[in-house]
Amino acid sequence: MVTTLATKPAAGTPTPDAPLEVIAALTSLIRASRAIGRQRHDQLGASGTPLAVLKALSRADDGQARPGDLAVAAGVAPSVVSRVLPKLEEDGLVVRRRDEADARSCHIILTPEGHEQLAAIQREYAEVLRTALVDVPPEEIRRMPQTLGLLERALLRAADQGAPRHTGLAPSLRPAQATTDSHAIHENSQESH
Where is the composition biased (Basic and acidic residues) (predicted)? Predict the structure, then answer.
């Protein structure tokens, strides 16, 4: 039996396939995270968007945010946040304050009860993860937050650069709007002939 050892590049030198491997690992992590998140939400009774709003408020620089900023942070449409906020207010988890500089605008602030509810949920999540990480070496666990932070910043830089447009994609791989637009362009070009 012949065994070969793959040559590793020098430390700090990414392989040509490294970005593809990062994308594959990240995609897998996102899928697992979403599936487990839904399961945890069901078990804890916590709902996704309201919880995302509370998390976004807890990370806000001055402890408050505008509804539009919360929508961006939660990854949902502003109308979704608009529907969630009254329920969070009714439960005493957030308060809405008018912006003194702009009467049309408001700031959402996380209340002490909101902090407490969020902390309780996060403690539950942390305990589940602590148990699940039992086989991961402690030095890897210590590096994870920094590595994931670096990855987040890299993804944001990539998003700022914009993605290249792939013109040769099959229709089933294109976004719905792009497919609709290309059909309209094609139909219009045929009408003009």
Answer: 183-193
